[in-house]
Specification:
Blueprint: E1 4-11, H1 17-26, E2 31-35, H2 41-46, H3 48-65, H4 67-70, H5 82-106, E3 110-113, E4 115-125, E5 128-140, E6 149-165, E7 169-171, E8 184-185, H6 187-192, E9 199-203, H7 207-218, E10 222-226, H8 238-250, E11 254-256, E12 259-267, E13 274-284, E14 290-292, E15 298-302, E16 304-307, E17 311-313, E18 327-328, E19 331-332, E20 362-364, H9 375-392, E21 410-412, E22 418-422, H10 425-430, E23 439-445, H11 450-454, E24 461-467, E25 473-479, H12 483-495, H13 500-504, H14 515-524
Parallel strand pairs: 1-2, 1-6, 2-3, 6-20, 8-16, 9-10, 9-16, 10-11
Antiparallel strand pairs: 4-5, 5-6, 7-17, 12-13, 13-14, 13-15, 18-19, 21-22, 22-25, 23-24, 24-25
The chain binds flavin-adenine dinucleotide.
């Protein structure tokens, strides 16, 4: 049988890959997606969506724990079915996976099951160079974070004029603590585990670490969060980090910031195994570097430890090494430059880039090309990548608008939620900008907001940083109920270069959480009404 040829082959069916494939099909290309596990990728199957299902359970639990304040009377004890909680989250993921399968059919995209490996150049098709891609049998143990994918025999070879690599990322572990699927957990074990640990140590207080920390803590697990940076959620603005830490501590979570992990030791085996995590305070050494102080070590004990310390690009077996596809810092190298990789403040903002690798006709998008590792970024990159290919192929008559990497909302979905867009005030200060001269800040506390008081959601605030003298939104930072929804208004405002004045003259419905955006904009101009 002759090799099947496609205009576009997308490797990986996550939010980057499947969205790129749909846009390519809409533009009239003959498209295939090769996925070795489940369509929907990490996001739909093991990330964004199933974790939010678990968090929804936790929020409900929290409300029930707070029942007296709500005037609820429940006779007997409020219990929960752990197994059902986990199963519900898996069912939600399964439903969305089926949804993506349907979308592939609807858009007449060839969905090919297997592990894709770019093996080399193929014969040109219609005068255009092409690549050969082997589709291999593959066994994936999806519920294990280290997710060993073992490609086997080649089932078929396809060829493509354009290849988009959207193979995502895998979690990082530590040299002295490898994921073992049992005691040393990554996100997958934390999401899938059938038995609730009594004690859990979460290493890394980023969004994933704090979301799981909140989930387990709410269900009664004793959670200790260890973070080497001075604050939890270290990418957020300082006042948000401090306020979030206060809330979590008030609720009884143990949080150790400025603390490094120097060793992790598993004690025993099987279900009764425990774990000893040796930590030490981070201090500045004689060389000016911040490192754990070995003289002040302390051992923490738990049943499980969750490593939530970041990710690296996944491209095991995706291409033949002899092709010389360039990589950088554990990711695929493209013309996209992640912020900070080429020096402080440097990186792609809204330049016209193609997401091209060093090999012509091979592109890469999503987590595999570096931070920010977010589903919405992967999807937008997928759309833009294929639209730029189409523009060069003269299928689109205007050059696509580039993605503005300074307008990417980042969200953490525990309760209270956190969401932000644009610059932090910390960053502006580091850049030498001065409050009152270069920028102003408006903060509106939820404790003064009618809707927040009515719904018992007074922990939190909206903060807007406006430029001076014109008042464009430099950054927005929201902590509290519905923060992850509220941020959309401020993302749009920043994208449109709107000013606080334009937010102020936009009527916001009452009573809503959105009024906090209106009031924060007013506050940034020194004319807040309701506080
Ligand atoms: C617990 C958790 C919670 C998260 N929550 C959020 C959130 O709330 N919001 C958010 O924006 N992001 C969140 N993320 C991050 C988000 O999941 C990723 O940014 C997103 O999935 C990246 O999309 P992608 O398409 O680049 O890759 P992926 O979603 O990882 O998809 C890549 C796909 O490629 C397949 N693949 C890999 N190699 C091959 C190969 N050689 N052949 C065939 N197929 C291959 C994989 O099986 C996978 O299905 C979360 C992540 C985790 C782990």
């Amino acid at each position: 049988m002759a090799d099947r040829h496609f205009d576009v082959v997308v490797i990986g069916g996550g939010p980057g890959g499947y969205v790129a494939a749909i846009r390519a099909a809409q533009l009239g290309y003959k498209v295939a997606v090769v996925e070795r596990d489940k369509l929907g990728g990490v996001c739909l199957n093991w990330g964004c969506i199933p974790s939010k299902a678990l968090l929804a359970n936790a929020e409900l639990m929290e409300k029930l724990q707070d029942r007296e304040a709500w005037g609820l009377k429940i006779t007997g004890e409020v219990g929960y079915d752990w197994d059902k909680t986990i199963t519900r989250s898996r069912d939600v993921a399964g439903k969305l996976n089926k949804g993506v399968e349907f979308l592939m059919k609807k858009n007449k995209i060839e969905s090919i099951k297997g592990s894709a490996k770019i093996t080399g150049k193929a014969a040109a098709v219609n005068g255009k160079p092409a690549w050969s891609i082997a589709v291999q049998e593959c066994v994936v143990k999806a519920e294990i974070t280290s997710a060993p994918a073992t490609p086997g025999a080649t089932r078929e070879t396809v060829t493509a004029t354009n290849v988009i690599i959207a193979t995502g990322s895998v979690a990082r572990d530590l040299p002295f603590a490898r994921f073992d699927g049992e005691t040393i957990w990554g996100a997958r074990e934390a999401m899938f585990n059938k038995g609730q640990p009594k004690r859990l140590i979460v290493v890394g207080a980023g969004a994933i670490g704090m979301e799981f920390g909140y989930f387990y803590h709410t269900f009664g697990t004793k959670v200790t969060v260890v973070e080497m940076m001075p604050n939890i959620l270290p990418v957020e603005d300082d006042d948000v980090c401090v306020a979030m830490e206060k809330v979590f501590k008030k609720h009884g979570m143990e949080i150790r910031t400025n603390t490094g992990v120097v060793n992790i030791e598993k004690v025993g085996s099987g279900l009764t195994a425990t774990v000893k995590v040796t930590v030490a305070p981070m201090v500045k050494g004689a060389d000016g570097k911040i490192a754990p102080d070995a003289s002040k070590k302390e051992v923490l004990e738990a049943d499980k430890v969750l490593l939530a310390i970041g990710v690296k690009g996944r491209f095991d077996g995706t291409f033949d090494q002899s092709l010389g596809l360039a990589t950088e810092r554990d990711h695929l190298k493209t013309d996209f430059r992640p912020v900070g990789w080429d020096g402080p403040g440097k990186g792609t903002t809204n330049e016209r880039i193609d997401y091209k690798t060093n090999l012509p006709g091979i592109y890469a998008i999503g987590d595999v090309i570096g931070p920010p590792w977010l589903a919405h970024v992967a999807s937008e990159e997928g759309v833009l990548c294929i639209e730029r290919i189409a523009w060069r192929d003269k299928k689109i008559d205007h050059e696509p608008i580039p993605l503005d990497y300074t307008v990417i909302p980042g969200c953490t979905y525990c309760h209270p939620q956190v969401a932000s867009v644009g610059f932090t005030e910390r960053h502006l200060k580091e850049q030498g900008l001065v409050k009152g001269k270069d920028y102003d800040v408006g903060v509106f506390s939820f404790s003064a907001l009618g809707k927040a008081i009515a719904t018992r959601n007074t922990d939190g605030f909206t903060k807007i940083i406006r430029s001076l003298p014109r008042g464009e939104i430099l950054g927005a930072h929201i902590m509290g109920d519905q923060a992850t929804e509220l941020i959309a208004e401020l993302s749009l405002a920043r994208r449109l270069e709107a000013t606080t004045e334009e937010i102020i003259c936009t009527v916001h419905a009452h009573p809503t959480m959105h009024e906090s955006v209106h009031e924060a904009a007013l506050a940034s101009e020194g004319r807040v009404i309701n506080s």
